[in-house]
Amino acid sequence: MTAGPKTLYDKVFENHVVHRDESGSCLLYIDRHLVHEVTSPQAFEGLSNAGRPVRRPDCTLATVDHNIPTESRKDFKSLDTFIKQADSRLQVKTLEKNVQDFGVPYFGMTSDRQGIVHTIGPEQGFTLPGTTVVCGDSHTSTHGAFGALAFGIGTSEVEHVLATQTIIQSKSKNMLIQVNGKLSPGVTSKDLILHIIGKIGTAGGTGSVMEFAGEAIEALSMEARMSMCNMSIEAGARAGMIKPDETTFEYVKGRPLSPTGAEWEKAVAYWKTLNSDVGAHFDEIVTIEAKDIIPTITWGTSPQDALPIDACTPDPSKVSDPIRKSGMERALQYIGLEPNTPLESVKIDKVFIGSCTNGRIEDLRNAAAVVKGYHLADNVKLALVVPGSGLVKKQAEREGLDKIFEAAGFSWREAGCSMCLGMNPDILDPYERCASTSNRNFEGRQGALSRTHLMSPAMAAAAGIHGHFIDIRKHQYKNSDEAKITISSDELLVQSGSVDNNPAAKALSSAGKSAAAKPTAKSASAPSSSPAKGNAGMDPFLTLEGIAAPLDKANVDTDAIIPKQFLKTIKRTGLKSGLFYEWRFTKDAEGKDQPTDFVLNVEPYTSAEILVVTGDNFGCGSSREHAPWALKDFGIKSIIAPSFGDIFYNNSFKNGILPIRVNQQVILEKLIPISDKGGKLVVDLPNQQIRDHEGNVLVEHFDVEPFRKHCLVNGLDDIGITMQKEQFIKEYETLRRDAYSFFEGGSALLKFDTVPVQKPVSTADVMHQDW
Ligand SMILES: CC(C)[C@H](C(=O)O)[C@@H](O)C(=O)O
Ligand code: SF4
């Protein structure tokens, strides 16, 4: 426990501790668990194999977002006909089966409430201030805008949360991003977060929970705050948080799953205590002056490649650090821009307005205001507008925004992740350049060889109209009133009756209260006799002697480790061929894969078991556990790097892979000379040491948390360990029902339409309704 003044993060963390062991490793209670189709199949399979139920269906809410086409659903008949890509269809259908089998509330494709997980949670009031929120998705950080502790987890952890409603965590550091003064006209929270990431880098927040504070933050709407926290993961942070205030309460009040009556009063009284105390300790403080920021976009292949719109692309010849210089050269080459090119002169091919960063109603209003009265430039082949949820879409249509976009030549779509990562039919063709409101501009993210530039919705819309990037402050609005459309997002709350007065909802709510450990139809059966698969039963990790492959790169993101097209599996194995796919293979004239000279394709590294990375932040970006699965499938058992992305680091341990942080100088001087020659290294986990083949000590001591070491050395299954703490979990649940009663109810408060429906029967059908 933190003694003395506490930060917002300290408070929310400490209020959720179920158990703390001597090493400081904590079991945290999870209030809200969002589930989507990409990262859950293997987790449900693990539960099934072990005969475990979902402990708290009422704390769980599922939807489909990544794989689904965004074309009109007017003629939607069934998933079989609507989703053409077989692997995408399988993932969606697998989720539909799992939510039925395990009794998890679900918004399917026929529900207006379907949307991107990070849009629907807040929209429904499922996300509440002071909660812990997790999802098998890195942008769970979005929910921190409410003063929730929200972070992305891997699939093994999804299984852990489904089974135990807890997660094993150790405390992160506290970081404060203080934004003084007011943002200038034309500058949005997207520009602000891009500016911050440009300043501190994608590893700037590694190991920390980032609190955003100051006058500029307090002035932001909830939606703008969500865009900020959404991208805190792009700064490497474990989570981003903003203290809840009147703006927060106003947004949350009256949402379908928000507390009401006396519970509301009790909740607000508690929420008002959730702020950083005067004198609270921050390990790091970054101060930003809002007035220094102008509209900002990215020029390269990392979110940290952010520059003011009036700047030119950087010049690598002026950079002395060799790793930075070669990274910059590669980024410019990939993105197809020369050094010193004015950003405003760069022409685009496509526009994407949407994603969990900027697919909410305010974003669409801002973009529509720019577009009104104009038409797409001739060189722009396609401009997609993809609402974050069905309800955002409905609201936009009520305001006539769809008509404004369509009149300007934009394509108006159904809710989903769409072109943010191209797991569905919305992709860029090779070398196409996109003005995108999403959050990641990694190589290949929006399609093989695609070129992504991140920016605000107004800037992306303006790029579509002008055909090139443009400073939004130079754009002539045709109807200046449009920028301040008066309908508030509260109108999204148009709904029939309050959930409190609905008897079905009441019944479900009380069912939710006793749902803990109540087996569902399927899981009520006795545990299956087959051994628990999932993440259980790993091989113990003791001493590893293996060939070490050198990798001279920084900021290797998980999109690069395993690109999006390989995420459509419902298994954990068979991912070897997708590992570093874009780097390991190139297409020949017939479109067949041919190996490149990438290090893992070259002898003796084809049998490497250790990866030695020279640059920082290995495994940054997405939470996909497919990254360690692919590395493991290839044969890699340990990765040595100066630093790691937090979620990847965690995911590695869950799969028996040991990530080791070693000082960059030591890597360059002692380890790389051996790996460059195809030599072997010895990683000794019990002694926390790295040696060469002859036994000479290269790294005297490396750090590893005692709990993680214990699990790895003994090949232990986290879930099994946590289940032994059942008594503590129960005690916490008793406390929660009393002290935090306003968090009870959760997704069990959703109103169900129990009228039988025609085939195809899916939970999407049975739960379809306006809210
Ligand atoms: C598919 C999922 C694991 C991934 C994430 O974690 O972020 C995706 O949402 C992304 O944006 O890359
Ligand atoms: S970042 Fe993109 S792909 Fe990931 S959840 Fe958000 S919208 Fe979906």
TrEMBL record:
Q: Note whether Iron-sulfur occurs among the keywords.
A: yes
Which cofactors must be present for this protein to function?
[4Fe-4S] cluster
4Fe-4S as a keyword of this entry, yes or no, is: yes
Q: Which InterPro entries match?
A: 3-IsopropMal_deHydase_lsu (IPR004430), 3-IsopropMal_deHydase_ssu (IPR004431), 3-IsopropMal_deHydtase_ssu/lsu (IPR012235), Acnase/IPM_dHydase_lsu_aba_1/3 (IPR015931), Acoase/IPM_deHydtase_lsu_aba (IPR001030), Aconitase/3IPM_dehydase_swvl (IPR015928), Aconitase_4Fe-4S_BS (IPR018136), Aconitase_4Fe-4S_dom (IPR036008)
Give the SUPFAM superfamilies listed for this entry. Answer: Aconitase iron-sulfur domain, LeuD/IlvD-like
Pathway per its UniProt entry is:
Amino-acid biosynthesis; L-leucine biosynthesis; L-leucine from 3-methyl-2-oxobutanoate: step 2/4
Protein EC? 4.2.1.33
**This protein's UniProt keywords:** 4Fe-4S, Amino-acid biosynthesis, Branched-chain amino acid biosynthesis, Iron, Iron-sulfur, Leucine biosynthesis, Lyase, Metal-binding
Reactions listed under catalytic activity? (2R,3S)-3-isopropylmalate = (2S)-2-isopropylmalate
- Any Gene Ontology CC annotation: 3-isopropylmalate dehydratase complex
The enzyme's main class, written as a single word, is: lyase
MF terms per GO, please? Answer: 3-isopropylmalate dehydratase activity; 4 iron, 4 sulfur cluster binding; metal ion binding
In the record, biological process GO terms are: L-leucine biosynthetic process
Record-annotated Aconitase/3-isopropylmalate dehydratase large subunit alpha/beta/alpha domain positions: 10-467
Chain spans, region Disordered: 504-534
Q: Where is the composition biased (Low complexity)?
A: 504-533
What residue stretches are annotated with the Aconitase A/isopropylmalate dehydratase small subunit swivel domain?
A: 538-664
Physiological role: Catalyzes the isomerization between 2-isopropylmalate and 3-isopropylmalate, via the formation of 2-isopropylmaleate.
Cite the NCBIfam families for this sequence. Answer: leuC (TIGR00170), leuD (TIGR00171), PRK01641.1 (NF002458), PRK05478.1 (NF004016), PRK12466.1 (NF009116)
Q: Which family does it belong to?
A: Belongs to the aconitase/IPM isomerase family.
Name of the molecule in the record: 3-isopropylmalate dehydratase
Q: Species name for this entry? A: Huiozyma naganishii (strain ATCC MYA-139 / BCRC 22969 / CBS 8797 / KCTC 17520 / NBRC 10181 / NCYC 3082 / Yp74L-3)
